[in-house]
Inverse folding.
């Protein structure tokens, strides 16, 4: 996924609150990046349209939508996916093919004609949105249909925005994104973010999680989910290894998976090899204890934190064990002589 520049994806039911939290998160990231305001506005507009396309066609709770954001050098690639009825396939295909066949001037004229004729579909004007996405991206619209059954097809739609107007290379990653969608669906992953983590971004991640399907759990379980997620995300932002000059931003990844019965959090970050044994020993020791022993160790560590602890990381592991009543799964994957990638996974019964 890293070579595809995949920064964010969500697979599931899209609510208004979730859509707003995705857009808020994206808006904050766009403000921080080095691209021009014009490019950022285009990207934001296309994200809004893509998310609206998903919610417009969402008919049933169990028909999951899909959204992915990629950064590939100078290109931002936005892919959406949703179920559509079989009779909608040809009209959508014809509309996109017509848009793709037009020049810049022809697109402008076509937009004005469509606007004047008030040629809006019963889904709220999706035709105008497609035209505007083509105009703002200055690239061909990429799409595909996958037949699910005689009644439904899955509609993938991809738009590419390039920050360099002189760059004519437009990567088409829809095949790879479809494969990723298939894999994460099989793995029951609902939410994924890959990028820089900081204390500032923690609230945004929490807000996004609160608007996913796991937010429908009982209040006590919701609080437990949030508590564990905060611990895991703080482990990245506080204890992760920075690979650039900004020590407040740590590269990493986090995913949320599972179903209505279980919530699975997975996080990963870089770590110095000389710290691996200390972290490994803390987790192994914590995993070896029963509930009573964990409570005793928690109180002891809280009152007398060991001097060799890594910023109190041991206390966090103990707390997560107490909250989840399950073992902490982890692994260290070597990167080079000085660095490894540290992955942690926790499961919470809902």
């Amino acid at each position: 996924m890293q070579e595809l520049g995949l920064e964010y994806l969500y697979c599931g039911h899209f609510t208004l609150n979730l859509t707003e939290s995705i857009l808020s998160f994206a808006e904050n990231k766009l403000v921080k990046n080095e691209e021009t305001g014009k490019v950022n506005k285009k990207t934001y507009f296309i994200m809004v349209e893509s998310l609206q396309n998903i919610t417009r066609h969402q008919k049933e709770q169990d028909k999951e939508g899909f959204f992915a954001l990629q950064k590939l050098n100078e290109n931002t690639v936005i892919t959406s996916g949703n179920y559509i009825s079989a009779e909608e396939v040809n009209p959508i295909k014809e509309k996109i093919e017509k848009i793709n066949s037009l020049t810049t001037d022809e697109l402008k004229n076509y937009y004005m004609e469509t606007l004047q004729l008030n040629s809006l579909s019963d889904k709220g004007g999706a035709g105008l949105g497609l035209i505007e996405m083509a105009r703002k991206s200055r690239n061909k619209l990429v799409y595909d249909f996958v037949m699910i059954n005689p009644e439904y097809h899955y509609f993938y739609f991809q738009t590419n925005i390039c920050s360099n107007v002189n760059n004519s290379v437009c990567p088409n990653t829809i095949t790879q994104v479809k494969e990723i969608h298939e894999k994460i669906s099989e793995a029951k992953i609902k939410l994924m973010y890959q990028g820089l983590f900081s204390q500032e971004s923690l609230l945004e991640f929490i807000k996004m999680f609160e608007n996913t399907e796991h937010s429908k759990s009982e209040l006590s379980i919701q609080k437990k989910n949030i508590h564990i997620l905060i611990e895991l995300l703080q482990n990245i932002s506080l204890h992760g290894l920075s690979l650039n000059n900004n020590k407040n931003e740590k590269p990493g990844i986090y995913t949320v998976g599972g179903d209505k019965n279980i919530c699975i959090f997975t996080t990963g970050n870089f770590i110095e090899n000389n710290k691996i044994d200390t972290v490994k020993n803390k987790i192994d020791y914590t995993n070896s204890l029963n509930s009573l022993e964990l409570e005793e160790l928690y109180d002891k560590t809280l009152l007398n934190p060991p001097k060799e602890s890594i910023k109190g990381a041991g206390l966090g592991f103990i707390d997560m064990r107490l909250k989840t009543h399950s073992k902490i799964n982890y692994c260290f994957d070597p990167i080079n002589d000085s660095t490894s990638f540290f992955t942690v996974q926790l499961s919470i019964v809902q």
Observations:
- The chain is about 45% helix and 25% strand.
- Residues 37-57 form the longest helix (21 residues).
